Each structure stands twice: as C-alpha cells, then as structure tokens.
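Materials and Methods. Structural model of Phosphate ABC transporter permease. The 649-residue sequence of Phosphate ABC transporter permease from Methanospirillum stamsii was retrieved and submitted for structure prediction as follows.
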Amino acid sequence: MISGIHKTLKNCRKRKPLEDIIHILWFACAISSIIGIFFILVFLLYDAVPAFLDIGLIPFLTGDRWDPGSAIPKYGLVPLIVGTLLVTLGAMVFAVPFGLACAIFIAELASPKMRNILKPAVELLAGIPSVVYGFFGLIILVKALQDFLDVPSGESVLAGSILLGIMALPTIISVSEDAISSVPKYLKEGSLALGATHWQTISRVIIPAALSGITAAVILGIGRAVGETMAVIMVTGNAAIIPEPLWNILSPVRTLTGTLGIEMGEVAVGSLHYHALFGVAVVLLFITLLINLTALSVMKRLNSSQMGGSKKKGILSRVKMPDQLTGIRQYIPAGLGLLLILFLILAGLWQGACLIALVCSITWAVNRYLARQNVQRIWFAIITLMMTIVTLILIFILYDIFSNGLPYVTPDFLTGTPKNLGRAGGIFPAIVGTFLLVTGSIVIALPLGIGAAIYLVEYTSENFLTRIIRTATDLLNGTPSIVFGLFGFTFLVLYLGFGISLIAGMITLTLMVLPTVIRTTEEALRSVPDSLREGSYALGATRWQTIKRVVLPPSVPGIITGAILSIGRAAGETAPIMFTAVVFMQRRLPDSLLDPVMALPYHLFILATNVPGARNNQYATAVVLLVLVIMIYGVAIMIRHHYDKKVRW
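The predicted structure was written out as tokens:
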C-alpha cells in the first residue's frame, strides 16, 4: 500500500510540470485577442500619424473635400463621413422595422416547425458573402432604381441603404429574437391572465422588457453597415461629395470603407496619400470600436437584468414606464413617422411620402377606433407580411443568381483556368486558392481559439484579466474586414516582408475568424455540467486530464459548429485578402506559402466591376461561391439541429 502511495505521489510530481506548461500554453492562446487588437491599433496609428502631423488632425477631420489627385491634394474626411452616415441611416430606416417584425414573428407567432425553417433561413441570409450582395445590387438593384426613378444612374445613397439594410437584417433579427425569447414567461403569462390580448402583451410587456437586447441589435446592425466595404463600393457611385441638398438620397456618395477599398491598391507606399488612407482607417476603427463597446455595454445590462433576485426588478421597471414618460410614449411613433415623411418630401420622393402618411393614418385609426381583437389581427397581418417580404428577398436573390449562373457552371468552368480577362475559361485556380486560404486560417485559428476558450472557462474565474480578454475578443469580432486587410498589408506584407502571399492572407483571415472560434468553444465548454468535472477530480484526475477526457468530448459538436461557421466567413470575405494575398489572373497554382493566389470573392468582385462582357462568368462564379458558403453553413446548422434534439445534460 505504501509503495502504491509513493507511486501515486511520483506520478503527481511528474504531472505537475506538464500541468504548468499546459496552463501557460492556454494563457498564451487567451491573450492572442489582446495582442491582435493591440497590434492592429499600433500599426494603423504608426502609419496614420504622419498624415495627422502633416495635414493636421482637425483639418483632416473637418475638411470638406477629399481629392488626393488634384494639383493641391485635399484630405478632408467630411464627405466620407457624411456618405457613411447617410447610407447607414438609410439602412437602419429599412432594417430596424423589418428586423423587429421578423424577430417578433419568429419568437411569438411562428409554429415550432416554421421557426425551425425561418431561423436557418435568416442565418443563411447572414452567410451570403458581401461581394455576392454587391453583385446582386450592381446587376439588379441599381438598374431597377435607375428605371423606376428615371435617373441617369441608380448608384446612390438609396441603393446603398437598401442593400446595407438587407445585409444588416440577419444581425438585427437574430439578436432581437434572442432578447424577445429570453423575456421570462411569467411576464407574458401574467399579462394574458389579466385579460390582455397577445398583441397587447407583445407591444406593452415583451418589447419593453427586451428593449436592451433590441437596442443592442440595432447598434450591432449599425456596426455591420458602417464596416461594410465591397457592397458599398459596388452600388453607391463612389463620388467623394456631400450631396446637395444633404437629404438627396439619389446622389452618389463614397464611404470610409469604400475609400480604403478603392484607393489603397493604387497609392504609392510612404506618400502622404498613403498615410492619409491609414488615417481614414484609424477613424473608421474608432467609430466601430465605439459602436461595439456601446453594444457590449447594453448587452451586459440586459444579461444582468435577467439574473435572479433584485435584478428581476430591472425587467419589471422597463415594462412599466415612468409616469412622466407615459404620455410622451404615445407620441414617439407619430414623431418618427413625421420625420420620415419630411425626409422623403425634402428628397423629392412624393410618392413615398404619401405612402408613409397613408400607412401612419391607417395605423392611428386602427389603434384608436377598432376593437382589440381586430387591432391584433391587423398588426399580426402586418408583421406576417414583413416576414414574408424578407423571405421573398432571400428567395429572389438566390433565384436570380442560380437561374442566371447555373447553366454556365460546367465541368470545364470548374476545372479550367481563366482566359480573356475572365470572360472565358474557368475558375479552378480561384477555387484552389480559396480552399488554401480557408484551410490555412482554420488550421491556425482553431488551436488558438480552443486554447483561449479552455483557459477562460477551465483555468480562471471571472476577473479583470478575463474581462479584458473577452472585451478584446468582442472588439476584434467587430473590427471591419477592410481594417484587417490594411493591418495585414502594413504588418505582414511590408513590415515582415511576406509580400502579397498565401501566408499573409492566412494570418489575416485567422485574426478575423478567431473571435468566432473562441466564443463558440466557450459556449460549448460551459454546456458541460460542473458535476462531471467534480467527479473526475474526485477520482484523482488532474485538470488537464479532466479537460481532455471529460470536458472536451461532449463539447466537440459545438467546437465543430464554430469551426464551420469560421470557414464560411473566411471563404466569403474579400476585403481582408485583397491587399494581402490575391491576384486577379493566375493560371498556375501556388508553389509555396509566399506565392499569391486567386480567390473566388475577389475574382467575382473584379469581374463585376472591371471586366465588361463577362456576365455569364460573373453569375457562374457567384453560383460557385454561394454554393460553397451555403454548404458550409448548412453543415453547421444540421450539426446544431442534430444535437439540439438530443437530451441535454
């Protein structure tokens, strides 16, 4: 017996150094997010400071003209900021009401079977690459606006607003639906028990209780719109002007992200123009960081208000409005409606203003004079109609791309090389390049992300350091993709000397997908009951043995889901690789990690914007890219659905 004890102690002493090494390894993985966001800030600021010093920070931020190519170059951000704000505001005018209506429908009105169909459909809408949205907007939306409004060009604030609104919908729907579903059931049951209708319960109890989550959804939607690059380049006209008048939604504009995407590839490295573009990136980064920090703050308030004890009072206090706001609340929808009508009148869109006025009048009359049950039927019909419109938008986008592109997706197209500037030939090098970029980024991101999640969940409790790591992860997740591309260009391509290469693209995409891997792995690890860990420790297992043999096996489905979602995002991104890894035409496959590659998103972008007469190959390339991303997201959805049906621990 004594010899057995000595043997056990000897094994413990052997395992102790291994445990310490593993602990240090996971800690290093966990701080990768902090290192990433720190390096992005440092290198962007390093290249932006010369512009701030030469131009002056205040003139740079307040200048009303951006014209680097003039005899006397002008570097004023006001036209770019105004363009960004206009398309973002227009996107929210469209996305917020439709997103909230869809969230209400999915959470409160849809049957379980329909909910299982609609939620994946919304996720599919989120998974469509931005370059595919931009291609659809350029080919269909812009021409439709040009014909319908009888204007010289459909590339405008309005086109950008509609397209960004569609792209922001999945974020607003998903987060709002989660917030609505998380409202305690006793609030809904209590309202119904007091005689309220379902609609009165939704509008006066559930929505006020979920207001923090809905607000966070809108803020995240704004961040999604502000950080978009490829789609706005393709549909907004890219004129660095302030619309005259300001509310002219048919005027072309240029956004902050669009400026970076258009001009960075042609600028001389080290010139004032080069440093000014990095100044634009710094301003964009701080705007998005501010938006994401605000969203995180709101979400933390929401999460804290959903806890037990006295914090339940937070939900109840939002359900019942303060006395001084009770009278004001009823005028808020009317005020917003009047502002929208005034905006449309000033923009010269009399038909739209009349339509909105008619809708507002009917809404007021319905709420004022009809019986409660009739009011409920009308509102439910409106919500169902809006859900139907969003679903039809998704179906129309998919139908247009597949009906026009599928006939040209032939074996020769899939296995051939591009010819005649992409008008003929195939896209095999682009398929291989996309595969290599995605595979390399996931190979790097998975161990880093899983290790970081293991450290946050298994090796430390909630403290100041873990809060910093999670905040850095969230900020990294909210960083615009074009900023990742600029960081990769200045750090990997120039500073480290990788050049435009496969390895530079892999590392850039790794930084972009790392937060997704960390978050999904964290959720998977937290779903394992603590009782299993305690039982393992009671049997004498070390922490790492417990993690490896008890915690990780049941967490594999969640980890795989996170990996697949990361693959889908990496496969559909254009901005992070356009300055770091890709070229448009390359007939041979890369021989090493230092060679450039072709990629499907970038190939589609160049075909759509720079190669006339390539319509068939444009659609065919969009089909291949869309099928690839749909398959990836479909696998993730099926894995989640499969394990959701199983009995939870």
